[in-house]
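Customer ticket, subject: "Can you confirm the structure for Cyclopropane-fatty-acyl-phospholipid synthase?"

Message body: Hello, I'm evaluating your service for our small team and ran a test protein. I'd like someone to confirm that this is what the system normally returns, since I don't have a reference to compare against.
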Amino acid sequence: MTERKSVAEQLAAALATVLGIPELPVRLRAWDGSVWGPGDAPVVVIRSRRALRRIVWAPGQLGLGRAYVAGEIDVEGDLYAVLGAVGEAARLGPDRSPPRLSRADRLALLRTAATLRVLGPAPAPPPEEVRGTRHGLRHSRRRDAAAVSHHYDLDDDFYRLVLGPTMVYSCAVWDDEKTGLDAAQEAKLDLVCRKLALRPGARLLDVGCGWGSLALHAAQRYGAEVVGITLSVRQAALARRRVAEAGLPDRVDIRVQDYREVDDGPFDAISSVGMAEHVGRALLPTYAGHLRDLLVPGGRLLNHAIAGHGWTATRDPDTFISRYVFPDGELVSLAETVGVLEGAGLEVLDVEALRRHYALTLRAWVNRLEESWDEAVRLGGAGRARVWRLYMAASALSFEMGALGVNQVLVQRPGGAPPPLRRDWV
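Agent reply: Thanks for trying us out. I re-ran your input and got the following:
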């Protein structure tokens, strides 16, 4: 007589099928207390039958992500260990979904769900899932504003808890692994300003200015006259307060404005840090051409953006990142970015890869989130805190493994003075 498999063993087989791997590389504990898997492996807990029901209805990254955000799937101990083991077995990154299930695999999943008595209607997605940003033309101004609002219009104190006092939400630049996050972010701001050759009176456009950190640094340390634009109403409000507190309202202008609406050039320099990922592949030539037209002859543009190594992100709307983190976000390769900038008539002066730096930055953000977990839950809710923990930890691993990169590409509009013979920003 065949021994009946435990709930945990059946769940482990079902999850392995969904992930497209022969065996689940973690130890699984089910809602009934049964356990399956190697004793020394990291532990994943399936707290509720509802988790499996979500996976039946969305058998892939989205169903798993929904169950985690809802607290129906959890990790005991090191989240990096679990994500690393699963990612290595399935070769997944934050924007790569497991393979589509075959008909036979779907039937097997349904049989397991029936045996465990979890069949039923699809559970409602957690409230943190994107709402109202998927209507209208992709990357229209209205839809882009809604997508930005979904991610950035959260409680300012939630961001401050994770990012720290610099309020910089992009890759820092580290001297070594012992450099503190705040010092590394200050170093990044200064590097951008030096690459752009800012000087007193220079006019800078900061595209995607966030909470105004780079704008403030450029005005305070380099005497620049800055226009910062963002689509986030909450970001702009805090940035304006910070500008007022610094006594710089005559030198820093923060606007809620789409980059396509800026028409008061020329600018001596343009910074775009962590913003190009929101533009969309189809509009990258428009983006590059418009920013070129806003520069004076000889003016510099620094484009700092995440890129995939050897692949480009699809428009799959059902990835965890698309539904919970960056709606409508699109990554392109470094080669494509450079090609678009050159196609717009801009001369490439320098390309710097910062992949390892972003892994360190993300781990530092996760540490701050976990150290103040109860406060993060109070400010953003348990689901939102879990979204951030999962996406940042998974992204850190993807940068470490080389699935993702991040690059600063410095370009110049032809004309004006030639670039220096040495890289004076190093």
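A couple of notes from the result: The radius of gyration is 23 Å. The chain has two domains: 7-115, 141-412. Feel free to reply with more questions.
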